Amino acid sequence: MERKIQKQFIDEGFGFKVRLWNVPMIKVRGAWTPNINYNDLAKVVLLALCHKPARLTGAEVRFIRQQLGMTLQAFAGRFCVTHVAVIKWEKTGTKTTPMAWTTEKDLRLFTLSKLVSKPTEIARLYAELEKERAESGPSVEVDAKKMVA
């Protein structure tokens, strides 16, 4: 099988754009495909969303909820909103959600707490989020060279 490293690749498999750098590619049935472990990529993207310098989109919120294995009702209960509110957030698709910033901060911190065990990392993110309220901005970017499948 043919292989190469592609400098940049936009993956939309999670429902939103993720810009990958240094992507190992493999030719399958005549088409170049990323040769990465998508389970590892999902974890890296979750972590990147916690630190994203822009507000979360509906597709990103849906991705987070699904990766955490939470139903609409459980997710809504955790963030003290109705499941209808969660549906409304997720329906915004690639646009930012109307979610209150305080709820988004809680969502990011909760997600990080599921990914890391060090309280210092959670405290660092909290300080980062407190420092500057996130605004609309770029997509998620990941260096994929360490995720070869």
Written account of the structure:
With 149 residues, the protein is of the alpha+beta class. Strands 1, 2, 3 and 4 form a four-stranded mixed beta sheet that branches. Helix 1 crosses helix 5, helix 3 packs across helix 4 and helix 5 runs antiparallel to helix 6. The protein is globular.
Short description:
With 149 residues, this protein is an alpha+beta fold. It has helices spanning 38-51, 58-67, 72-78, 83-90, 101-115, 119-131; strands at 3-11, 18-28, 31-34, 140-143.
Count, helices: 6
What ranges have pLDDT less than 50 throughout 5 or more consecutive residues?
none
End-to-end gap: 14 Å
Q: How large, in whole angstroms, is the Cα Rg?
A: 16 Å
How helix-rich are the residues, as a percent range? 40-55%
Mean pLDDT: 92
Structural class: alpha+beta
Instruction: Specify the overall morphology.
Output: globular
Helices and strands, in N-to-C order? EEEHHHHHHE
Largest sheet: 4 strands, mixed
The amount of beta strand, in percent, is 15-25%
Count every beta strand, where a strand is a DSSP E run of 2 or more residues.
4
Notable characteristics:
alpha+beta; 6 helices; 45% helix; 149 residues; single chain; four-stranded mixed β-sheet
Task: Draw up the topology in text.
Elements: E1 3-11, E2 18-28, E3 31-34, H1 38-51, H2 58-67, H3 72-78, H4 83-90, H5 101-115, H6 119-131, E4 140-143
Parallel strand pairs: 2-4
Antiparallel strand pairs: 1-2, 2-3
